[in-house]
Amino acid sequence: MREPVTTIHTKPIGRRLADAVDTHISLVGRRDLSGEIYRQLRSAILEGRLVDGDRLPPTRELARRLGVSRTTATVAYDRLIGEGFATARAGSGTFVDHAGVEPRRRRPRRTRVRPQPAWEAFPLPSFVWDTTDAEFDFRLGVIDAGLFPYRTWRRLMARQFQPAVVGRGVNEHPAGLAQLRGAIAHHVGLARGIRATADDIIVTNGAQQATDLIGRVLLRPGDRVAVEDPGYGPPFLLLRAMGARVSCVPVDREGLVVDAIPAGTRLVCVTPAHQLPLGMTMSQSRRLALLAWARQANGVIVEDDYDSEFRFGGRPIEPLHTLDDDGRVIYVGSFSKTTLPTIRLGFMVAPPSLRQALWGARLLTDWHSPIPLQGAMAEFIAEGHFARHVRRMRLVYEARHELVTEILNRRFSSDFRVVPSAAGLHVSATAVSMSTDQVQAGIREAARSGVQCYPLGLFALTPPAPAGLVLGYGAIPTERIEAGLERLRRAMAGAR
User: Fold this and answer.
1) What is the DSSP string of 43-94?
2) According to the model, what pLDDT value does residue 111 have?
3) What is the pTM of this model?
């Protein structure tokens, strides 16, 4: 006797009268076929997988797909209707209708499977996706999404779905779309003086994936890695989860303290253009010292240049990559601050000796970033839209940077000292008369009054947490900065 078909594959939920839902019924090894259809549909309704208004497949189609008689399917539907789980509408079909029947929550399955220790109770850094809707938004790293040229981007994305552009619809090279790699190489050459060709570029899903790929091809469990402290938490957590021994190296007003890098370190991650979160630029002498360390220790440097497109003054200092003659610096960039974080595109400039390995790592993780996004970004850069958008946003952010800095120096000087910076989307200020607990209490009070910002201690990778404020100005309109900072000042005064 033929085995009954195990799954119904009908049209997905479309909320049109003619559409039936996509559900799953298995009759393999079952005896009471009509009862089994009824029970599985009832369970789907009670668990909320089928909701009021969903149209069930016609009994003739259901019977054909399951390999049973139409009578078998009809009896199951009649039981559902009789018990108040569905209704039949003449000429339209059978619909889920369980008014008055409370859906039950399915008990989670018990399991003895456990993750590796590094992932047990993983400390997710919630600030990375903090979506709090605040009246005055001073969160770090948030851009002004309202000023993005959406009409242009929609046109470029629409072009990517034309048959002539899609072509055969096959996968691309793991390094990314050739047009985008060429556009990125041209951009970093002009904007940052980096000597690179399209062959040197690997497109990634943001800077975090670049760090992941680098760690995969360079590190073995137990290798030592150094990161800045205070610093950005996700790379620290990622490398530690890979099994690396991560050392937190302090920073001072010149940047990473090179002399504090532990012996035996294989990899160093730095933000030299605009230290995250403090904001200082690594001095030229410190850059040269870090490159000398890499040569002597046979080490590798990951240069995260996350927001240097927004530089507001002062003489630009060359990236580590341009000073590197030994191929020991991997330059990492991202479009998250210059376009939209939700686009999730970044890149790295990799030395030839690592290129093949990085391609392989990218292929085995997720092959490549979405081709339509890559194509649209390539044209966005090539047609000049990217450069125009960055120039426009630089003026906007520069005005906000100057205003935030001026107000902090004028109204917060008794409690905080601003860390000088000339780039990026945030300003930091260290506390001079308040403890870490007092600053955090002030931030909580400010949040209750509609002001959202972060304590400097949030970015401490090792204790003690420094006392201070990190104020982003990407999301808050310029005209609202003064009122927001005044509300923050009052909250801090109350926390002293």
Assistant:
1) HHHHTTSS-TTPBPPPHHHHHHHHTS-HHHHHHHHHHHHHTTSEEEETTTEE
2) 75
3) 0.86
Q: Which helix (H) or strand (E) holds 3?
A: none
For the beta carbon of residue 275, count every other beta carbon within 10 angstroms. 25
Blockwise average pLDDT, block size 10, the chain, 496 residues = 42 47 81 92 88 90 92 94 90 82 64 82 66 86 95 97 89 96 96 94 96 97 97 93 96 97 98 95 96 98 93 82 95 96 96 96 95 97 97 97 97 96 94 95 95 95 94 96 97 92
- Encode the chain in three state secondary structure: CCCCCCCCCCCCCCCCCCCCCCCCCCCCCCCCHHHHHHHHHHHHHHCCCCCCCCECCCHHHHHHHHCCCHHHHHHHHHHHHHCCCEEEECCCEEEECCCCCCCCCCCCCCCCCCCCHHHCCCCCCHHHHCCCCCCEECCCCCCCHHHCCHHHHHHHHHHHCCHHHHCCCCCCCCCCCHHHHHHHHHHHHHHHCCCCCHHHEEEECHHHHHHHHHHHHHCCCCCEEEEEECCCHHHHHHHHHCCCEEEEEEEECCEECHHHCCCCEEEEEECCCCCCCCCCCCCHHHHHHHHHHHHHHCCEEEEECCCCCCECCCCCCCCHHHHCCCCCEEEEEECCCCCCHHHCCEEEECCHHHHHHHHHHHHHHCCCCCHHHHHHHHHHHHCCHHHHHHHHHHHHHHHHHHHHHHHHHHHCCCCEEECCCCECCEEEEEECCCCHHHHHHHHHHHHHCCEECEEHHHHCCCCCCCCEEEEECCCCCHHHHHHHHHHHHHHHHHHC
Cis peptide before 277 (omega within 30 of 0): yes
pLDDT (0 to 100) of residue 361: 97
Residue 283 amino acid letter: S
